[in-house]
Amino acid sequence: MDHLNDNIQYMKGVGEKRAAAFQKLGVRTVRDLLSNFPRAYEDRRTFYTISEAPIDTPVCVRAMVSGTPSAVRARRGLTFLKLKAVDETGVLDITYFNQNWLKNTLAPGVTYIFYGRVGENGRRRTMTNPAFEREDDQGVVTGRILPIYRLTAGINQKLIMQCVRTALDNTQEIPDILPPAVRGKYELAQARFSYENIHFPRDDISLDQARTRLVFEELYVLAGALELMRSRRKESDGIVIPDTSMDGFWEKLPFSPTNAQRRAVEEAIEDMRSGKPMNRLLQGDVGSGKTLVAAALIWRTVQSGYQAAFMAPTEILAEQHFQNLTDMLEPYGIRVVKLTGSMTAAQKRKTVENLTLGQADVAMGTHALISANVSFRDLALVITDEQHRFGVDQRSALTGKGTHPHVLVMSATPIPRTLALIIYGDLDISVLDELPPGRTPVETFAVGEEMRVRIWNFVRRLVGEGRQVFIVCPMVEENEALPENVKSAQEYAEELQRDIFPDLRVLCIHGRMKAKEKDAVMTAFAAGEADILVSTTVIEVGVDIPNAALMIVENADRFGLSQLHQLRGRVGRGKHKSYCILFSDSRTESARSRLGVMTKTNDGFLISQEDLRLRGPGDFFGSRQHGLPDMHVADLSADMRVLKQAQQEAQKVLAADPELKNPENWPLRDRIRELFELHADTFN
Ligand code: ADP
Ligand code: MG
After folding, report:
1. β 79-87/90-97 pair status
2. Pocket lining: 288 vs ligand 1, CB cutoff 6 Å
3. Which of 4, 294, 328, 486 is the most buried (most CB within 10 A)?
4. Structure confidence at residue 625 (pLDDT)
5. pLDDT of residue 599
6. Which residues touch 416 (CB under 8 Å, ≥6 apart)?
């Protein structure tokens, strides 16, 4: 079984180059390879004759190439290859785009199995870019359920399939991390069977059994890891921060704290003096004033002679928090320093030195805070903002810089209770359920293109009154083809400046800019040096520009509701009446009712529930929103029932063997270590 940890570089057909490509898929060892499950399957078992094949459904057709394929050159470098294939029922016109080399592969008079969707062109039947296999090779891919893997440059389906096959053939025994009793209780398949059938399903039932077992296994490891973290924390001693009055802090603020803010601070201080490490989640809608709670706790901590660290997900946000904290805390002689990736090596070195020697009290930064060379003299409080952007492992890397420091996690994304209980099962929760006084809700309108002129006039009017305006465009991935109606931030900004608002000052910010450039633009806008800021969602989190009174979202239907709510939270942060305009030309019922929710309520929790209901759990929890490690097969919302079962079983195992010292539990221990590989020390 040891060979599961072997590097796949030494497997037949792999080598150094391909091993490097495999790494991009997160595959380094034989075990990784076996755990890299297919993202989908193709059923190559259904055969049809040409004339009987259903239209537009993937099927196999057995047909003979009936003439020499001919290559055609079209405009703009596009080439295609046309050929005919026949069976006893009819003729199939096959076209391949940009694959002219197939000309010498597909030989006339030879029978192939073509796999693809049959189309119709008048009375003729067609197929475009079908996969194929010679009939006499049959059995390699045809006649089976075929795994489809995620790919990366330098790696194709065939290679992965071959490697997985070899790995399975060379692995006599896959250690079963599920105790036989658990397997029996939930009627779960054995490890060996499951790994075989998730890659090469014998039939639908076997695939189902394999998946069920692997989902359980994955959640069992996750639950075990979380349980282990929990029990560790409860054992450890916390730094005692004495409970003295907060009045000295509240007094110097330009405003008085809301009752909710006061309560959250009191709850946290109660934890911090208890002798156990605090582990608290602070949930509060956008604009509820979470930063102030953080500042109050930092103040308390530093007054007691300790240091604090505050981690934000982006440079812009770190910069803004840095400014705020400096303003709020410097009057007390508290030394706040900044640590971000864009600083020069020399600046970073100096900052780290200050922290190590205790010449600085508070470190405000990005991920840069968790890099290995950062250390503190006396770190007692760790705060992370917009927590769902950080993984569990990153959080624990930061706490590792102190000796069981107190932890406050801040989140503006309310998550459904059932899930919170599992993910945050060990966190105490404070909620800011009250907005600072004087806020009026942002008035929201969902509009179509026909309102364009009126909205542009409205922009002019507000700018005339001295206000500023955000215009947000959907993020466009590097290689995503741009649909006709979707606007890219940069081009759009240029267009607006040139054609619509030549007399106004338009700035642009987008994800492909360097951190320094983004900072410069954001700073300029915050300083009132522009009237309109066109951006992608980089401004989504936390950024505070009190003078901004209008948020316009283009192609609003391309955003999730929670995301729109975050965006809307960028305005209405000052004393000015604020508006949000959601442009959308989508006429679909679902787009309309989604945007309708935004116009009806400003309540973030309600909106996230609607989001969940309308989009379904898959989308809602996609893209690491939960801050947990990526799951291979499990779906944290759909597999909720299994998650509960797995959690129960993991708790039982850990109750009986808290350190996982029993050899029977070694496979589980190893898998947990692997899950949080980055910080194996947490689990030693
Ligand atoms: P969020 O919870 O979204 O992170 P922030 O901490 O950024 O909210 O606070 C939003 C705005 O409200 C900031 O401009 C902040 O200065 C202001 N603010 C916070 N608390 C109060 C308060 N008690 N009274 C008035 N304004 C406040
Ligand atoms: Mg914030």
Report:
1. antiparallel
2. yes
3. 294
4. 40
5. 93
6. 608, 609, 612
Q: Which of 150, 148, 163 is nearest to 25 (CA)?
A: 150
- Which ligand minimizes its atom distance to the CA of 294? 1
Looking from the CA of residue 290, the nearest atom of ligand 1 is: 2
Q: What CA–CA distances, in Å, run from 248 to 38, 193, 296, 645?
A: 59, 65, 10, 49
317 lines ligand 1 (CB under 6 A): no
- DSSP letter at 55 equals B
Q: What's residue 614's pLDDT? A: 66
Question: Does the C-beta of 383 come closer than 6 Å to ligand 1?
Answer: no
> Which residues of the chain register pLDDT less than 50?
1, 478-479, 617-627, 678-684
Which residue has the least CA distance to atom 15 on ligand 1? 289
The rounded Å distance from CA 271 to ligand 2 centre is 22
For residue 429, report the distance from its CA to the centre of ligand 1, in Å: 19
- CB-ligand 1 contact for 544 (6 Å cutoff): yes
Residue with tokens 């890299």: 36
What pLDDT shows up at residue 621?
42
Under 8 Å between Cβ of 61 and 114 = yes
Of the chain, the end-to-end C-alpha distance in Å amounts to 22
456 vs 536: CA distance, rounded Å: 19
Cβ–Cβ < 8 Å for 55, 119: yes
Per-residue pLDDT tens over the stretch 216-261 = 998 898 888 878 876 776 677 889 998 888 999 998 888 899 999 9
Ligand 1 pocket residue status of 574, Cβ below 6 Å: no
Q: What token pair was written down for 167?
A: 């790995």
The pLDDT, as a whole number, for residue 475 is 66
Q: Which of 221, 231, 225 is nearest to 279 (CA)?
A: 231
Closest residue by Cα to atom 4, ligand 1, is 290
Q: Which residues contact 209 (CB under 8 A, 6 or more apart)?
A: 189, 193, 194, 197
* Strand boundaries in 412-465, DSSP class E: 428-432, 443-447
Nearest residue CA, atom 14 of ligand 1? 573
Task: Say what the pLDDT of residue 540 is.
Answer: 53
- Tokens standing for 516? 């320094």
CB neighbours of residue 457 within 10 Å? 10
